[in-house]
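input
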Amino acid sequence: MTKIIVLDRDGVINHDSDAFIKSPDEWLPIEGSIEAIKRLKQAGWIVAIATNQSGIKRGYYSRQTLSMMHQKFIDLLDGELVDWISYAPYLSEDNSPARKPGVGMLQAIEKRFNCNLKNAPMVGDTKADMEVALAKSMQPYLVKTGKGERTLAKGDLRLQSIPVYDNLNAVVEALLA
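output
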């Protein structure tokens, strides 16, 4: 069986901002997240990222700047490689199937790795992350970092059965235990 995990980016791997992460200088990893991804890779996991990046369409940053943010992230992994980074540059009102909670990015991951994501873990900090994981019959994990605390505070009943962890590092510790 392929061990594959899908991670959201902002709020899970790096600190998030309501004003958007607009440059490599603003892209700052959450404590322990880089090490958690390294441990997953060393344990043989495929690590895929699925991230909404509406800041591109809003004109806050370019695709080239996003690429530079991702290069900073990759450089911090010290030789470990993330297997896939998928992003949706669309706004909610675009109704793009690529933008979470649409399943387009997850379908692309399945096609790329010739796998089915059913029961695979997905880590996120928003309701959209949890919804897309459930739509693909994945195992969602909600982290309290990023928008996670806000997501929990809304008291959505659908979140009651979803495991909640302090951060990505805690999720990875549980998965690798």
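quick obs: The beta strands are 4-7, 46-52, 84-88, 121-124, 139-143, 164-165.
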